[in-house]
Amino acid sequence: MVDFTLTDEQQALREMAHDFAEKEIRPVAWEYDKDGTWPQEIVEKAWELGLMNTHIPEEYGGAGASYFDGALIEEELSWGCSGIQTSLGCNGLATAPVVYAASEELKKEYLGRLTEAPLLASFCLTEPEAGSDVASMRTTAVKQGDKYVINGSKCFITNGGYANWYTVYAKTDKDAGHRGISAFIVPRDAGVVVDKKEDKLGQRASNTATISFNDVEIPAENLIGEENKGFKIAMATLDRTRPGVASMAVGIARAAMEFAVNYSKERVQFGVPIAMHQGIQFMIADMASEIEAARLLAWKSAVMLDNGERNTLVSSFAKRFAADTAMKVATDAVQVYGGYGFIKEYPVEKLFRDAKIMQLYEGTSQIQRLVIARETLVPRRIEEPAAA
Ligand SMILES: Cc1cc2nc3c(=O)[nH]c(=O)nc-3n(C[C@H](O)[C@H](O)[C@H](O)COP(=O)(O)OP(=O)(O)OC[C@H]3O[C@@H](n4cnc5c(N)ncnc54)[C@H](O)[C@@H]3O)c2cc1C
């Protein structure tokens, strides 16, 4: 029997996250967006409340929460500000490969660091010449005795400027395409250089950095899983994180719709609130139904993970549909506000800018369609060389 009713615990978790978003995130979100202020105090409060590191298993100090619970939290915090939620949620992305494939020693050390103190970790896959086409990455890891030596550069790394450690993908076999990639944990103090903080269109309170590795030496034990299995680990990671990203997109869309609904009841044109005009009503109707559909896809993709099922297809449905919905709803919310929607003083302008990233990171909307097409035309192929 399919039942969409939340349990009392899930309801309480959702309320707790909503309360945090309303009291701690919303009041500063537009201000932080203006100057791209790093939300350090919000990171510390969220960490204290257990709203970070939710998927780290209990034995390493985490909440051991289900993916479904994570989706509930991610929607609410993104309703507050998706840029701040990107900063809070990035540990989930960086730790997913560790939880999935790392040795017991690495889990204890590096997951433990994040649960013992409000520290951050980053996920380093993208390079200047290798975005959607992960297999073309150039960063290398060369084994020398009991060490790996890493050289290369990664771009667009969330929390890159603040991370204590990094999950880094590098070529261990340059000629083997996606079968020559391995994943490593690289502590910041091994010599990671933060080159540049990006100035962004949206999600401006999140930190996005270019980082580089110049003969960075790490112990051989910092290899995550087996050598040359990094691509598979990266794809398994994205299956695990896309439900949460879809939920973030739902949070942005919901916020935009709420502003549009309220504004449409207040703004009077042609002698009536604009909500009385059918053209506006239809935009609101499309927003409401598409948000509901996006949430159901996000929930389904999370529940499949919780049930131990392969969710590649459904997590791409969810990420693609929710991201495109967030962009469409935010665009229509600006439309409902008319000229005021284009002005920074009004809230939907920020949501419009924030929504755009949902169609780009963790696999663009085109890459999601690529995955969906492949999974539909040739079901259940697990390893494919382009899908970041
Ligand atoms: C704010 C921000 C935060 C990010 N955080 C991280 C992070 O923490 N870690 C990390 O590793 N990366 C991160 N990224 C990188 C992000 O995942 C990439 O930007 C994304 O995967 C796209 O890669 P690209 O930018 O190189 O675009 P490209 O791959 O160059 O794509 C350009 C365009 O071509 C399209 N395209 C490419 N290939 C195909 C194809 N085969 N078929 C159809 N269309 C195609 C794309 O959809 C896109 O529209 C972040 C990016 C941003 C902007």
Rg to the nearest angstrom?
A: 21 Å
Q: Find the count of extended strands (DSSP E, 2+ residues).
A: 10
- The separation of the N and C termini measures 34 Å
- Any idea what the shape is? globular
In the predicted model, the low-confidence regions spanning at least 5 consecutive residues are none
Bound molecules: flavin-adenine dinucleotide
Major sheet, described briefly? 4 strands, mixed
What assembly state would you assign to the polypeptide chains in this entry? Answer: single chain
Order of helices and strands: HHHHHEEEEEEEEHEEHHHH
Order of neighbouring strands in the sheet with most strands: 1-4-5-8
The secondary structure category is alpha+beta
- What is the average of the pLDDT values? 96
The helicity comes to 40-55%
Proportion of β residues?
A: 5-15%
Q: Determine the number of helices (DSSP H or I, runs of at least 4 residues).
A: 10
Molecular structure report:
- β2 (140-144) and β3 form a beta hairpin.
- By secondary structure, the chain is α+β, with helices and mostly antiparallel strands.
- A 4-stranded mixed sheet has the order 1-4-5-8.
- α4 (82-101) packs antiparallel against α6 and α6 packs antiparallel against α9 (348-358).
- The protein has 10 helices and 10 strands.
- Helices cover 52% and strands 15% of the residues.
- Residues 122-126, 131-132, 156-158, 200, 203, 208, 357, 360-362, 364, 366-367, 370, 386, 388 line the site of flavin-adenine dinucleotide (FAD).
